[in-house]
Amino acid sequence: MSFEPGRLILHRNVRRGRIGWVRTGRVVSDDERGLLIHVARDSPVASEVTEAGLGMRAVPFTEWITSSYRLAQATWQGPSLLKFLPTGAAHSVWWFRDDEDRFTNWYVNLEEPGVRWDDGTLAGVDVTDQDLDVIVRPDRRWSWKDEDEFTERLAFPEHYWVADERAVRAEGERVIALAEAGEFPFDGTWCDFRTPPDWDTPDRLPSGWDRPPAR
Questions:
Q1: Radius of gyration of the CA atoms of the chain, in A
Q2: What string of H, E and C letters represents the secondary structure of the chain?
Q3: pLDDT tens digits for 103-136?
């Protein structure tokens, strides 16, 4: 299954059969290297929150796992970004930009390989975000991100969606090696990306955005 450039799709995070977040984006390219998505400023999104409206990172995990949830719709805050999902890989790489649309850094999101789906009028890719991340700066210096949250949640295996801590860290270390060597996708590719002028930004999530997860 491949997606045509320019097509609006959904990038969704699924945790233990529940949707954690949803982001709308347009396909930049989809080839043997992987899927590249552009998420525009003010794109419609949704994320799981408690009944009190708090996101998962705003409460201790012990409180999160005993809460009830709902999906709150909003818009993407901050500059646009690119997300690259390499074919078959347990991570994605994001290109963050500043308010002047200039590249600032790469962000390695460790996640289970994406599962694609296409309902005809609506399509997307579902992943399971594994929480631990890596920030890579333009000079290829790097640092782990969210280690405390990752460690906290690993203490609750009956509720957490990460089954193998070592596999997650090993994937991160593999991608770090690529970054240190300046190899694709850390070789400058897409750092100067500009959004095609005919791409519009939808004002709401499309019908079916909350369909059952593909995984």
A1: 17
A2: CCCCCCCEEEEEEEECCEEEEEEEEEEEEEECCEEEEEECCCCEEEEEEECCCCEHHHCCHHHHCCCCEEEEEEECCCCCEEEEEECCCCEEEEEEECCCCCEEEEEEEEECCCEEEECCCCEEEEECEEEEEEEECCCCCEEEECHHHHHHHHCCCCCCCCCCHHHHHHHHHHHHHHHHHCCCCCCCCCCCCCCCCCCCCCCCCCCCCCCCCCC
A3: 999 999 999 999 999 999 999 999 999 999 999 9
The CB density around residue 152, as the number of other CB atoms within 10 Å, is: 15
Tens digit of each residue's pLDDT (9 = 90 or more) over 14-51:
999 999 999 999 999 999 999 999 999 999 999 999 99
Report the predicted TM-score, pTM, of the whole model to 2 decimal places: 0.95
